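Assess this today:

___
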Amino acid sequence: MSSTPHLIITGATLEGWFAAALLVNRLRPLGIGVTVVPTTEDVPPPMALCTAPALGHLHRELKLDERDIVRFCGGSFRLATQYKDENDETGFLIGFASAGEPRDGAGFHHYWHRAKEWDGARAFSSYNLAAAAAAKGKFAPPIPEAADIRGRFEFGLHLSGPLYQDYLQKCALHYGAVLAPSSFATAVRDENGNVSGLVLENGETLSGSFFIDATGLAASIAGSGETQTALQGPGQIDWLESTPRANLSLTVTSGRQGGYDISVPLYEKTVTGRYRASAGNISNDWRLHPWSENVLTIGRTAADLEPLGAPLMTLVGTAINTFTELLPFGNDAPFAREEYNRRMRETCERFSEFQLLHHVLSSGGTSEDDLPSTLKRKLTQFKSRGRIVTYDHESFDEDTHLALYLGAGLMPERHDALANRAEDGQVKDFLSATLKSVRAARDAMPDQRQWLERSGIARKTEGGSS
């Protein structure tokens, strides 16, 4: 190749191309180019993906229209997740919105808890517009200029994994990333153990100052490293396809003996990831030092967590944001490396703890006896007085924690005393007015499948359903 790339990504994978698209834009002002090198061990993308609203911010940074992403990837817009098990087919919903508004210094959930004591409140998710709309299969984009709940919700995406990888590759190449002319063969290291270049199968050598390993469990240039295993241990995920589901707005997680199914509604089919806790293809661990010397690991090379909560793209996005914030091209690289490893280690710990919360709160779930002290504190504080505790580097906000606690039936022993200042009738009217506004906004939304078709977003494939 005619020029020497400064940053080389090993792995033409989902996370490799995502990193390339973001980094080629962010590093261009510094005169740093990005090259992607495929390997024969590149981990394939999952059959389907669920993304969180945070990924949308990165899409917008790349000037990508998420309607185009959904169209290209045969997907749909995601407003909420339903959690249910064999003993409760209704379960509960967690939506991408807040439930209600605070009043007189007390959070909405304290008034809801007070009304619940006299059976004066509906399910907590009923007061969450995203959850209420998802339950009915509705969808419309938020209205930013609206001064009410119509502008105060977010959405994620349901996407075909292989098609999204193809989309990201096109995006990265469009913005100036370069695809190496041949696959990776071996790494060249200097006397200090740093990677100085990659030898390709065609014999060519690419030199660079920094490398990212996005190959997956093969860790082609990073090699093995010290890891921390999640309390719930490894597992096996298998993918199944079935007919398209009518409701496109809702991810459905169904608890089963020894695991759960995650049903992802794409436009023309439903893809289900069947996860079981056993020795299998998911190690359920993360590297304690995802950045070592001049090699950064991201995605499934750095953390291989069970699918609950959709960790893959969330953790990749966090990794790239953290990396570019610290930018190691200079004399402060050792300090940047130490800080990066601390942040990403805590991010993975918090994510794993959130997954563990689901297991603890589900019937017959993991015992609380051996939980991490941070997770014990979260549960203790909420049980005592309905207080939400979160830490630095959380992937899930207070609203999501709250929806999980109350949806799973974890009720506080008492509510905020400030919520007692209102009369019973005022509390009832407050909840009734909130419910009325949620229902009105929900009912004004169209069915998502119909909206996709009318908007021309629905992906039409040969032999498809549209």
User: Anything to note?
Assistant: Confidence is low (pLDDT under 50) at residues 462-466.
